[in-house]
Design goal:
The chain is of the alpha+beta class and 207 residues long. The protein has 2 domains: 114 residues, 2-Layer Sandwich (Enolase-like, domain 1), CATH 3.30.390.80; 74 residues, no CATH class. Helix content is 41%, strand content 15%. Strands 3, 4, 5 and 6 form a 4-stranded antiparallel beta sheet that branches. The protein is flat. The model has no long low-confidence stretch (mean pLDDT 80).
């Protein structure tokens, strides 16, 4: 019997890292690969696209629903430009691209590549004089530290490692270059980190 849990367990175990694309501060999963993978596991899955929703400022929102043997999920997404800002009076091409991105994100709600969206819903960091001073001195900014914490959560590192990492990253003089190295490392780390032993998780950590 197919259940929400069985679908999640199946799809969340798959590594999607080789099928993503970085744009700005966000990571996107190829909708074609995501749908193909979903079909290989659940060929009965169906999706439907909702009517576009337009707002007074001219921006537009799209929505997608997916049904896998009566297990249903929904997702919505604004039509955005390359900087992830809502487009006013979007073209048909803009809307079509948004629908396919929304499809990939809706599939993620079933587990496939869900971790690449970690931190997307965090508020935009506000630049402060302290951040400006940190950047000038080569120290990590709050934005870098928040990104590292979000990635730690998404990779589910062993709790025994977390306090030490947070302590080092939180130090006022923690280097910005080291923070960038940590972010790059964590973004490449497989999602199934919990399957690794504590020693394997700690091996090579650049913190």
């Amino acid at each position: 019997m197919v259940t929400y849990k069985s679908i999640w367990d199946t799809l969340s175990a798959l590594n999607v890292s080789e099928h993503t694309e970085k744009k700005g501060n966000l990571t996107y999963l190829s909708w074609a690969w995501a749908w193909g993978t979903l079909m290989s596991h659940y060929p009965q899955a169906e999706y439907s696209v909702r009517a576009e929703k337009f707002f007074p400022d001219g921006s537009c929102e799209v929505g997608v629903d997916i049904d896998i043997l009566e297990c249903k999920r929904s997702m919505w997404l604004p039509v955005m430009d390359g900087k992830n800002n809502a487009i006013q009076s979007p073209s048909a091409t803009d809307i079509n691209k948004a629908k396919m991105r929304c499809l990939a994100k809706c599939i993620a709600m079933f587990g496939l590549g869900h971790y690449i969206y970690a931190g997307e819903d965090l508020p935009e960091p506000v630049s402060t004089p302290k951040d400006a001073a940190a950047a000038k001195n080569g120290h990590a900014t709050n934005e870098q530290r928040e990104r590292i914490v979000a990635l730690l959560d998404s990779k589910a590192l062993d709790e025994k490692l977390r306090p030490g990492i947070i302590s080092r990253v939180g130090a006022p003089t923690y280097p910005a270059a080291k923070a960038d190295e940590c972010i790059a490392y964590l973004e490449e780390l497989p999602d199934a980190t919990l399957a690794l032993s504590l020693e394997e998780q700690a091996d090579g950590l650049p913190f």
